Amino acid sequence: MTTPDSTAAATPAPAAPAPLTSNEARVLAVLVEKRHTVPDTYPLSLNALQAGCNQKTSRDPVMELSEAEVLEALDALRRRSLAIESSGARVMRYEENARRALGVPSESVALLATLALRGPQTAAELRSHCERLHRFSDVSAVEGFLDELASRPQGAYVRQLPRLPGSRESRWMHLLCGEPSVDAAALAAVRVSEPGPWAGGVDAQAFARLSERVERLEVELAELRTRLGD
Q1: Which of 45, 135, 139, 226 is the most exposed place for a label (fewest CB within 10 A)?
Q2: How far is CA 130 from the centre of its chain?
Q3: What DSSP string describes 25-92?
Q4: Burial of 168: CB neighbours in 10 Å, binned 0-12, 13-18, 19+
């Protein structure tokens, strides 16, 4: 006799989703980010989404995606239910559906988006950078969600990088674009170990506030261009 519990246990886990391209990962991460940081203008117009993808602040690497490349990435994300298109009053608008499509909680979505936007980071850095997307109580909470993402039976979404010489903490990187080569992982670890923009004496909190203000202004400018174009 088969019990409900044994039936559930026999159900195979869903297969891991196919890797995203770097453009698709950037578009998805921006949609996640802007849901929380600019809710008044969300879902995003194409102009606002492109501006978010090409921001010079809070991005590693900095990208320069064309409108055609953003649309191509959106089409791919929509086919996989990671993004949703809606018809606004004047233009098409786009929002993310990562929590359901990836099958992870909103806390994990925030971590994945931050890793996709800013590159490899320590758990402490992730807690700080994720604050506008989700406020974690402490670093151990971040580590708990990272461990879950790294040990998913369907396939890991993150990986812990080897600790660099002289570093006290290991950094994490996302695997939304698949398993990186050994050289790519090493390069990512070295790049994030370089001094940040505040190493020359600029206050880190002041820089973060300025970056947030620039991000909001860029989105508002893109929305204004959309309205003027209409």
Answers
A1: 135
A2: 10
A3: HHHHHHHHHHHHH-GGG-SEEHHHHHHHHT-SSS-SS-----HHHHHHHHHHHHHTTSEEEEE-SSSE
A4: exposed
Distances (CA, A) of 29 to 8, 49, 118: 33, 10, 10
Q: How far apart are CA 117 and CA 27, in angstroms?
A: 9
Kind and range of the H or E element at 173? strand 172-174
- Taking alpha carbons only, the member of 132, 176, 189 closest to residue 23 is 176
One-letter amino acid for residue 87 of the chain: S
- Spell out the alpha helix ranges (H) of the chain: 4-10, 22-37, 46-53, 67-79, 98-102, 106-118, 123-129, 139-150, 182-192, 204-229
d(CA 131, CA 37): 10
Distance from C-alpha of 145 to C-alpha of 110, rounded to nearest angstrom: 10
Would you call 196 exposed, middle or buried from its count of C-beta atoms within 10 A (0-12, 13-18, 19+)? exposed
Which pLDDT tens digits describe the chain residue by residue (230 residues)?
545 454 444 444 445 578 999 999 999 999 999 999 999 999 999 999 999 999 999 999 999 999 999 999 999 999 999 999 998 678 999 999 999 999 999 999 999 999 999 999 999 999 999 999 999 999 999 999 999 999 999 999 999 999 888 888 999 999 999 998 655 555 555 554 444 444 444 454 555 556 566 666 666 676 666 666 65
Give residue 36's identity as a one-letter amino acid code.
H
Q: How many CB atoms lie within 10 A of CB 207?
A: 14
